Amino acid sequence: MTHALKNRLTCLMLTILLGLAPLAASQALAQEMSPIDINAADAALLAELPGIGPSKATAIVEDREANGPYENAEDLTRVSGIGEVTVDGLADQITF
């Protein structure tokens, strides 16, 4: 293998590794975050939860204000667009 080819491969590998670094960092950060209190969080914080986003976060806050606090994760299914799969994915990231 020529010196120029080795340099190109090294640069390519470095580029790939640097591209993957933010992904690994965000996953580590998600694992280190404290659970979010569904009954106290505002829409902006709720929107950071996986599978929620801004519109569902707003709907959670509106439902909470209209129907009272959530007692468990299953209560989130009273919000349109939040089903069992979403609730299962949030189980370790939320608290009440």
Structure description:
This is Competence protein ComEA. Pfam families: HHH_3. The protein has a two-stranded parallel sheet with strand order 1-2. The protein has 96 residues and is mostly helical. It is built from 4 helices and 2 strands.
Short recap of the structure:
Residues 44-63, 74-93 form the Helix-hairpin-helix DNA-binding motif class domain. The chain has helices at residues 3-32, 43-46, 53-67, 84-90, and strands at residues 36-37, 94-95.
Note the total helix count. Answer: 4
How many β-strand runs?
2
Shape call: rod-shaped
Strand content: under 5%
Question: What pattern of helices and strands is seen along the backbone?
Answer: HEHHHE
Strand-pairing-aware structural class: mainly alpha
CATH class categorisation of the largest domain: Mainly Alpha
Alpha-carbon distance between the two ends: 60 Å
The radius of gyration is 20 Å
Helical content class:
55-70%
Q: Quick one: CATH superfamily of the largest domain?
A: AF1531-like domain
CATH architecture classification name of the largest domain? Orthogonal Bundle
Biggest sheet, in brief? 2 strands, parallel
> Which residues form runs of ≥5 with pLDDT under 50?
none
CATH topology of the largest domain: DNA polymerase, domain 1
Record the strand order, biggest sheet.
1-2
Count structural domains.
2
Q: Please, what is the average pLDDT? A: 87
